[in-house]
Amino acid sequence: MEYSQLVVKGDEIKKFLGQQQDQLATLKSSFTVLKTNLENMQGVYAPVIQAVNALHVASPDDLEIQVLKAQIDRNVAEFEAAKAEAVALETAVAGV
């Protein structure tokens, strides 16, 4: 390759790298926003979870309440898994 071609290729590489760095910055920001949203969601839905738990304690033999409690427990487990994944992803990209 001639010098001028190498300069052009070098500029292309620099441009591509800049684009990738911009995408990485966007991803880092997205994971932070995701984690914050999940943390905020926890505060919003905590009273609902507490109310369902209280209903279940008050009426442990009520089938409808048992089903509702199971659904809430499943949702909480999925929520906690999503939150843990968001934290792990944010941590992973923080060092990049």
Please describe the biggest sheet, giving its number of strands, its sense, and whether it closes into a barrel: none
The figure for the number of domains is 1
End-to-end distance: 33 Å
- Spans with pLDDT under 50 lasting ≥5 residues? none
Strand content: under 5%
The number of E-state strands comes to 0
- Name the helix and strand elements from N-terminus to C-terminus, one letter apiece: HH
Counting helices, strands and paired strands, the structural category is mainly alpha
- Principal-axis shape: rod-shaped
Q: What is the share of helical residues? A: over 70%
Mean pLDDT: 90
Alpha-carbon Rg, integer:
24 Å
If helices are DSSP runs of H or I spanning 4 or more residues, what is the number of helices?
2
Question: Could you explain how this protein is built, in words?
Answer:
- With 96 residues, the chain is mostly helical.
- It has one domain (3-94).
- Helix content is 92%, strand content 0%.
- It is built from two helices and no strands.
- The protein has helices spanning 3-58, 63-94.
- Helix 1 (3-58) packs antiparallel against helix 2 (63-94).
- It is rod-shaped and about 80 Å long.
- The model has no long low-confidence stretch (mean pLDDT 90).
